[in-house]
Write a structure and sequence with these properties.
The complex is a heterodimer of chains A (about 120) and B (about 110). Chain A is mainly beta. Chain A is built from no helices and 11 strands. Chain A has strands at about 5, 10, 20-25, 35-40, 45-50, 55-60, 65-70, 75-80, 90-100, 105, 110-115. In chain A, the strands form 2 sheets. In chain A, strands 2, 4, 5, 6, 9, 10 and 11 form a 7-stranded mixed β-sheet that branches. Chain A has a 4-stranded antiparallel β-sheet with strand order 1-3-8-7, with no helix packed on it. Chain B has about 110 residues and is an all-beta fold. In chain B, a hairpin with a 2-residue loop joins strand 5 and strand 6 (about 70-75). The chains are: A mainly beta (about 120), B mainly beta (about 110). At the A-B interface, strand 5 and strand 10 of A face strand 3, strand 7 and strand 8 of B.
């Protein structure tokens, strides 16, 4: 059974950093395209990072230079390093698998990141 | 502002059909056959309902169908049931520099 379990969210001050983790089971992270998607309070879904199986990464302009997606193949885990956090980064962050391209067939339950002083 | 435009709300009575639209441009919806639809019950993980415009993943009832005409994609839910009440989001491929764009979401209410 495919499962994605996120962790690492919490309350952080503006300008701070946070690293989200997503432990996958039932499939191999490194063999798949993976993504992080967020949903701000009362807002829609927003793609915030993508990593291809070959290791290439992509980010929207809203987080480029601040967020970094990565994976640890030995732990079958996906990460999202978030730096220079802003109030507008407050959201529930979902880890997800892309398949078939570019649809998302499995999502985690999400982890809440709140950026506030 | 979301890249794709959806109506904020839609509604229908049990047994009826409802269609939700998703309007983009020739650079996303109109340019590729890569439109997906997701069902999201608040507090739960979103669920893929339609991919590649009109394909249903295993386990999704055939009451859900997708289509596209020009720059507008549509999700139709037939034979509405109470459990269909949820938020629905469309997404589309939008090119190699911006692979995934989402709509703003539509809240479907079953009256």
């Amino acid at each position: 059974e495919v499962q994605l379990v996120e962790s690492g969210g919490g309350l952080i001050q503006p300008g701070g950093s946070l690293r989200l983790s997503c432990v996958a089971s039932g499939f191999t992270v490194s063999n798949n395209y993976m993504t992080w998607v967020r949903q701000a309070p009362g807002k829609g879904l927003e793609w915030v990072s993508l990593i291809y199986s070959g290791g290439s990464t992509y980010y929207p302009d809203s987080v480029k230079g601040r967020f970094t997606i990565s994976r640890d193949n030995s732990k079958n885990t996906l990460y999202l390093q978030m730096n220079s956090l802003r109030a507008e980064d407050t959201a529930v962050y979902y880890c997800a698998r892309i398949s078939p391209w570019p649809s998302i067939d499995y999502w985690g339950q999400g982890t809440l990141v709140a950026v506030s002083s | 502002q979301s890249a794709l435009t959806q109506p904020p709300s839609a509604s229908g009575s049990p047994g009826q059909s409802v269609t939700i639209s998703c309007t983009g441009t020739s650079s996303d919806v109109g340019g590729y056959s890569y439109v997906s639809w997701y069902q999201h019950h608040p507090g739960k993980a979103p669920k893929l309902m339609i991919y590649e415009v009109n394909k249903r993943p295993s386990g999704v009832p055939d009451r859900f169908s997708g289509s596209k005409s020009g720059n507008t994609a549509s999700l139709t839910v037939s034979g509405l049931q109470a459990e269909d009440e949820a938020d629905y989001y469309c997404s589309s491929f939008a090119g190699s520099d911006n692979p995934v764009v989402f709509g703003g979401g539509t809240k479907l209410t079953v009256l």
